[in-house]
């Protein structure tokens, strides 16, 4: 069965802003603008507004908290956690900050740390059903099913119409082999939402375990009617039909399950079994071979996880999409601007070596020329010198802490070298200072 998803808290906190009268008013304006943009779904705009509020008044916890929410909605959970950390440092009694930090930690698969945050949120606000639900989800991911059952039950006690908690409790009861009791939870979910395919599928699994194969087929018929792309539903219906000796129909279900999820060893085994029953011994042996040989890691999660670093082709594509920063400037006496612009032109003509020579001269004449460090880093990366590129990009962000493109390129290079955490934190910083292209990369490679 697929795991239930952890919901992302979308709460916004409006709090008073401290500071001088003039700064307070200006920071408050940015803060209210951030709230408005968050409510309208403009999370990049909200992030920039909260960043301005923080620049003016860096001691307001609500600004960090809401910027964290904006980052989380952009799937930048590493960056969100840093903001929640600061919000909690400034206001250790903020239950919502612990709750939201726990959600972002869950999204990063750090379920033990998330569980601690949810527990602290419950200590601070013991009547919040969402905190119990999220803690139950974390406990479930850690195979702590009895604790999860208690948390889901508490959620339902506080919020009897919480269909997600009823569904999650039904799944948890299955893990504890309490199939009879789980039926009632799934049935309540169906009563609340007759179009929730997962609830029919979940109830069917319990019926199978209880030997009610005809009832399971009826539920799975409905689940498939509502969601015809769920491989598990076809698998379980094939299994139930096999138990009812309906091998021809079961074969068709296993075949469909394999078409939707070719990595499910159970479906190959089931199809092989039905082929044998239908007289196709050669085909059954092929399916049994597949059932034995398949690597089924992470099959149950139903989630395709990105694993590994950015490859060279992806790095090149992402890096080359960055616009150059060659703008006309007044020519100073040492003429560093002329060397810089000539370097850009040489690089465009394919003379990377000559470009590096000119950039070296630019930096020699003007060591604080951030664009020269950035451009030299870009060229070094294209030439395969990723460590040298990181050194140049680090110089660029040291000289200009709001150089979003430099954080971005350094981030994708770090990721390509295997430093996923460092790379994703750089991408988060790039987005924070306004380079919003970073969020697409974060969404694809940092979750």
UniProtKB/TrEMBL annotation:
TPR repeats: from-to residues: 27-60, 61-94, 95-128, 129-162, 163-196, 197-230, 231-264, 265-298, 336-369, 370-403
Leader sequence segment: 1-23
Keyword Cytoplasm: no
Gene3D superfamilies xrefs: Tetratricopeptide repeat domain
Pfam family, one: TPR_1
SUPFAM superfamilies cross-referenced by the UniProt entry: TPR-like
SMART domains reported in the protein's UniProt record: TPR
UniProt entry keywords in alphabetical sequence: Repeat, Signal, TPR repeat
Domain of life: Bacteria
UniProt protein name: Tetratricopeptide repeat protein
């Amino acid at each position: 069965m697929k795991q239930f998803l952890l919901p992302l808290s979308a709460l916004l906190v409006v709090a008073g802003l401290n500071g001088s009268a003039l700064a307070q008013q200006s920071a408050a304006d940015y803060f209210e603008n951030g709230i408005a943009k968050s409510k309208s779904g403009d999370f990049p705009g909200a992030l920039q507004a909260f960043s301005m509020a923080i620049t003016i008044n860096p001691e307001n916890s609500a600004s960090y908290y809401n910027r964290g929410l904006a980052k989380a909605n952009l799937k930048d959970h590493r960056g969100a956690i840093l903001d929640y950390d600061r919000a909690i440092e400034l206001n250790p009694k903020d239950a919502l900050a612990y709750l939201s930090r726990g959600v972002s930690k869950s999204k990063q698969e750090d379920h033990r740390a998330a569980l601690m945050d949810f527990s602290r949120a419950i200590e601070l606000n013991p009547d919040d059903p969402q905190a119990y639900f999220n803690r139950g989800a974390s406990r479930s991911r850690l195979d702590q099913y009895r604790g999860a059952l208690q948390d889901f039950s508490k959620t339902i006690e506080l919020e009897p119409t919480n269909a997600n908690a009823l569904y999650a409790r039904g799944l948890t009861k299955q893990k504890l082999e309490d199939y009879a009791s789980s039926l009632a939870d799934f049935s309540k979910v169906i009563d609340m939402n007759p179009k929730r395919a997962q609830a029919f599928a979940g109830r069917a699994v319990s019926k199978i375990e209880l030997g009610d194969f005809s009832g399971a087929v009826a539920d799975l018929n409905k689940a498939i009617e509502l969601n015809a792309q769920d491989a598990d539903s076809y698998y379980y219906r094939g299994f139930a039909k096999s138990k009812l000796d309906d091998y021809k129909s079961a074969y068709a279900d296993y075949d469909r399950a394999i078409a939707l999820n070719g990595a499910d060893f159970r479906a190959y085994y089931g199809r092989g079994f039905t082929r044998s029953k239908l007289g196709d011994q050669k085909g059954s042996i092929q399916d049994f071979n597949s059932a034995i040989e398949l690597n089924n890691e992470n099959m149950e999660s139903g989630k395709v996880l990105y694993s590994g670093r950015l490859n060279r082709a992806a790095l090149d594509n992402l890096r080359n999409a960055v616009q150059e920063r060659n703008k006309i400037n007044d020519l100073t006496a040492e003429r560093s601007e002329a060397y810089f612009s000539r370097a850009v032109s040489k690089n465009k003509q394919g003379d990377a070596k000559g470009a590096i020579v000119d950039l070296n001269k630019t930096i020699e004449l003007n060591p604080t020329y951030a664009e020269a460090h950035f451009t030299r880093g870009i060229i070094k990366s294209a030439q395969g010198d990723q460590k040298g590129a990181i050194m140049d990009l680090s110089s660029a962000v040291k000289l200009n802490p709001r150089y979003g493109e430099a954080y971005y390129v350094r981030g994708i290079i770090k990721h390509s070298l295997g430093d996923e955490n460092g790379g994703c934190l750089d991408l988060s910083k790039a987005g924070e200072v306004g380079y919003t292209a970073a969020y697409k990369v974060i969404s694809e490679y940092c979750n």
